[in-house]
């Protein structure tokens, strides 16, 4: 990791340490429809091993299919502390392991997980392309890769606002001018669906799969 990457990682960590005590209050309900929609696409089989990237306070734990083996990682130790407290009081049969780790440099073997999910993280990381490549690498063949995020607007006033306000949002810990759908589709992840969610359809649930044999599925909007 370069010095620049390290210092970017530290500033994201600082921002989310600051948010950690009131994260659920501010971003809990507001972003919940997108989380719920994303998890509704997750294979319902029990006993799957799922990686939750940027797990934050563990706000997604209730949404997993019964008896999942959840591995959550986050760059911010304060977030992981909160997620651990939440995991300790859950009683829905999940097995949960939590680690402080950089999403752009995952310390897991290739093909370790049945599915990988990452709500509201890709625009907060220092290298979104590397994040997608890491999600793909650690996911088993035919496993699901699900991302929820804002994706740059295609034009009009929203797009201009996103550009103007971008420096402000960077200070708040995320970027608004990244075309997440285009980025994910440019990787080896096969994007199956991109569905609008949350207030004003501001965010997208991107449902993808790791399928080494199929190339270039056309992106279908649902
Ligand atoms: C907007 S929060 C999303 C939290 C949670 N997934 C949710 O649904 O609310 C973004 C999270 O990503 C984490 N994060 C940012 N950059 C990261 C990185 N490079 N590696 C791991 N986690 C990262 C932050 O610490 C923060 O907890």
- Segments where pLDDT lies below 50 for 5+ residues? none
| Beta strand % | 15-25%
Share of residues in helices: 25-40%
Q: Largest sheet, if any?
A: 8 strands, mixed
Q: Tell me the total number of β-strands.
A: 8
Description:
It is built from six helices and eight strands, in the order H-H-E-E-H-E-E-H-E-H-H-E-E-E. The chain is α/β, with parallel strands linked by helices. The chain has an eight-stranded mixed beta sheet with strand order 3-2-1-4-5-7-6-8. Helix 3 links the parallel strand 2 (69-74) and strand 3 (95-100). The termini are far apart. The model has no long low-confidence stretch (mean pLDDT 89). The site of S-adenosylmethionine has 24 residues, from helix 1, helix 2 and strand 2. S-adenosylmethionine is lined by residues 9, 12, 16, 27, 31, 35, 54-56, 59-60, 73-76, 79, 102-104, 119-121, 124-125.
Give the key terms:
222 residues, alpha/beta, Rossmann fold, eight-stranded mixed β-sheet, 6 helices, 36% helix, 24% strand, binds S-adenosylmethionine
SSE map:
Layout: H1 3-19, H2 23-40, E1 49-53, E2 69-74, H3 77-88, E3 95-100, E4 113-119, H4 128-138, E5 139-150, H5 156-172, H6 180-185, E6 190-197, E7 203-209, E8 220-221
Parallel strand pairs: 1-2, 1-4, 2-3, 4-5, 6-8
Antiparallel strand pairs: 5-7, 6-7
The site of S-adenosylmethionine has 24 residues, from helix 1, helix 2 and strand 2.
């Amino acid at each position: 990791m370069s010095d620049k990457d390290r210092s970017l990682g530290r500033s994201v960590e600082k921002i989310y340490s600051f948010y950690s005590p009131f994260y659920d209050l501010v971003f809990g309900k507001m972003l919940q429809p997108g989380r719920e929609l994303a998890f509704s696409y997750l294979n319902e089989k029990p006993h799957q091993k799922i990686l939750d990237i940027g797990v934050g306070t563990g706000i997604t734990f209730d949404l997993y299919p019964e008896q999942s083996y959840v591995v959550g990682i986050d760059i911010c130790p304060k977030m992981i502390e909160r997620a651990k407290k939440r995991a300790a009081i859950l009683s829905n049969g999940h097995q949960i392991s939590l680690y402080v780790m950089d999403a752009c440099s995952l310390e897991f073997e290739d093909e370790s997980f049945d599915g990988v999910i990452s709500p509201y993280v890709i625009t907060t990381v220092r290298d979104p392309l590397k994040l997608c490549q890491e999600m793909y690498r650690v996911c088993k063949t035919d496993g699901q890769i699900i991302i929820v995020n804002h994706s740059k607007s295609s034009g009009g006033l929203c797009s201009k606002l996103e550009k103007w306000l971008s420096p402000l949002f960077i200070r708040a810990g995320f970027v608004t001018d990244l075309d997440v759908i285009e980025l994910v589709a440019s990787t080896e992840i096969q994007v199956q669906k991109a569905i609008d969610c949350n207030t004003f359809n501001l965010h997208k649930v991107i449902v993808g799969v790791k399928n080494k044999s199929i190339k270039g599925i056309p992106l279908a909007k649902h």
